[in-house]
Amino acid sequence: MQDLIVQKYGGSSVANVERIKRVAGRIIETKKKGKKVVVVVSAMGDTTDDLIDLAQKINEHPPSREMDMLLATGEQVSISLLAIAIQSMGHDVVSLTGAQCGIVTSNVHKRARINEIKTNRIEKELEAGKIVIVAGFQGINENKDITTLGRGGSDTSAVAVAAALEAELCEIYTDVDGVYTADPRIVKTASKIDEISYEEVLEMASTGAKVLHPRSVEMAEKFKVPLVVRSSYNYNEGTIIKEDVIMEKVLVRGVSLDENIAKISIFEVPDQPGIAFKLFSALAKSNIHVDMIVQNVNRTAVNDISFTIDVDELQEAVSVAQKFAFEVNAQKVEYDQGVAKLSVIGTGIVANAEIASKFFEALFELGINIQTISTSEIKISCLIDKERGKEAMVHIHKKFDM
Ligand code: ASP
Ligand code: MG
What we know:
Belongs to the aspartokinase family. By secondary structure, the chain is an alpha/beta fold. The chain has helices at residues 17-32, 47-58, 64-88, 120-127, 154-164, 198-206, 214-223, 275-285, 314-328, 353-365, 389-399, and strands at 4-9, 36-41, 93-96, 103-105, 114-117, 131-135, 138-140, 146-148, 169-174, 195-197, 227-231, 239-242, 254-258, 261-270, 290-296, 302-310, 332-336, 339-345, 372-376, 379-385. It has a domain at 4-175: Acetylglutamate kinase-like (Carbamate kinase, 3-Layer(aba) Sandwich). It is built from eleven helices and 20 strands. It has an eight-stranded mixed beta sheet, sandwiched between helices. Strands 13-18-20-19 form a four-stranded antiparallel beta sheet, sandwiched between helices. A four-stranded antiparallel beta sheet has the order 15-16-14-17, with helices on one face. Helix 1 (17-32) packs across helix 3. The model has no long low-confidence stretch (mean pLDDT 94).
């Protein structure tokens, strides 16, 4: 759709009435430039966390379907308040839940994927000259149950809406100026990146940099949605995310730290064909995303297998692992939440072996033990002791002169 801008405002940008009013003003400015505007919002401030706490006071492991029902209310509050603000400033506006704007997802609760967006309702409202406010993070499955897209999922809602409507631009508004070489709260010398490729930002997002929901970047890349990450508190340029970014000399783009992971180890698993398949297909069936995997060589008839997962999925993953261990007669299952994944990212990494050695050297300089290493063309990650994570991040950032 021509002249259409999709804007997404995160929870901190709409955390209170003052901020909601300011965001409303900003949306109206865009509209006044002759643009059609669709806005996707997250829940106010810490609402989602507060709702989770509330549920857990009743049941430590509440059912996923009811959690989706509960968490989706957070966004329903923010869309309606924002619409009230815009309307009171004299502009036509309508707020829509995920279901109302036809965001159809898979049946998985708490981490559903968007399958389709039936855009006719949004289009109709835009044609009527309205600003459209869409609830982020939520959709509806084929049973008409409310689903959510995983923590931070409003970014994905925004990119999906932008892709479905063929928007000219998707702007992600947050509380920092853009994508940084490292988390500026941890690394004081981190600098803002002006332009970065989808591929690099996807690796950064997937390795713990809290810039964007990883799925949103995957989707932006797939549908070639031009993305900008910028602050809702100022008018600075932000970071442009696009396909090809010309980079000279810059080999390493950023360093990220994921503290939100856990390691599960299964000891003395029989060394036989089909064992890894059995374990990881069971995890996949439970929709548990596995990241780093190591199988130790034991030189006997048994192996130890370790893997990392998102800490939010620990409970489920441990029960799958225990069931597996019982079935194959493994010795025991243990888990460790005291780990973090430290990564360096950059398209120059594949062509330059020195980067890995410099990374390991930096950890050696701090006397930090590496538990697991994994690499891709544009990334090197090490699993280390969580307690040393931040310090290591600062040191690596300096070592690579980012
Ligand atoms: N409100 C949801 C969360 O806090 C979704 C989002 O913020 O993107 O995870
Ligand atoms: Mg939030």
